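If you are new to this repository, start here. Below is one unmodified record pulled from the training split, so you can see the exact layout before writing a loader.
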Amino acid sequence: MSGNRPQKPATKLVHAGRRSSQYHGVVNPPVLHASTILFESLAELEQAGASKPGKVTYGRHGTPTRFLLEEAVAELEGGFGTLCVSSGVAAITNTILALVKPGDHILVTDSTYFPTRNLCDTFLKKFGVETQYYDPTIGGDIAGLIRDNTVLVWCESPGSLTFEMQDIPAIAKAAHARGVKVLLDNTWASPILCRPFDMGVDISIQAGTKYIVGHSDVMMGTITTATEEDLLTCKKQVVLSGDAIGPDDCYLAQRGLRTLGVRLRQHHESGLKVAKWLQGRPEVKRVLHPGLPDDPGHAIWKRDFTGASGLFSFVLHPITKPQLANMVDHMDLFGMGFSWGGFESLILPSDPKKIRTATKWDEDGQLIRLHIGLEDTDDLIADLEAGFERLKTV
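And here is the target side for that same chain:
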């Protein structure tokens, strides 16, 4: 980039992490495959272990294909630096493991992504790290849960499945007053719908599989830190774990990143249109979307976010299992699957009761999570309407 003029996200999405002049004017960074890297001298070989980020030393540690993607994500999120790993779960696991030791206590939002909870309740517990889950709406009152051995607060805003918004600045203020780091799963917002480091977050984690890639064909996670110290701490853990991501996946993520802005504008518009339509359906008890004015977290969303993605949930009035199956088994446009963030729309029935411990999920109706893709919203609404009609035939 030329000059020091501040640039808006749409411009950064096009230009961040590109070095065309270094690659014969090629617009997209090339795919560089490597395992072995050759060194010209003993001195150069001996310096490899202490090399600075961005230096190619071994294929598992990355090539410029990965380094340029990391540079772009860090610039978009406003962090010091980024590490790309093999999946969102790998990003979660490596980041938490980098910061904890036996005897530590961590605080995790009760609305967190299930694999995060699974890591805490199995692996971390086995090695003497205690996890305490907290009400996602706790805000600054989290100060009352912080102990002398608390090392991190894990946030996710909005939360998986139930979409509670968290007051991240208030949580960060309380945590930092006790020297505790704040980590945020920022996958829902992607790198451009919120600025985690402006809110006091120390480390931002994303499943790049979702909106960064955007085409449902790559597994990837990103770890972005506010400081060089945290970046190096996380990098040591990633290297220790043996995690690696291939250059082809990094190339696809780079390409997906360039259209992230226009895709998210469509996800935002289409998602809100479908959410508002669902609010008027007699089969629907309530819609869980922070972009709706009557959502409990709307004020926080409006303060901290510049838009919404296409992921949200709604709760049906009580139905039977056969009714649910008759609805979701015969959708024409909504596929049924666990991921999201791609160009296609998805539908996923779920039950938060099974995974909540600090708070209760008291809804008696079926929760259904939707990802609104890039199809025409009138067609998506017609598909949902036909699904609701099928509820009446069982």
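Two things worth knowing about this chain: The longest strand covers residues 150-156. The longest helix spans residues 260-279.
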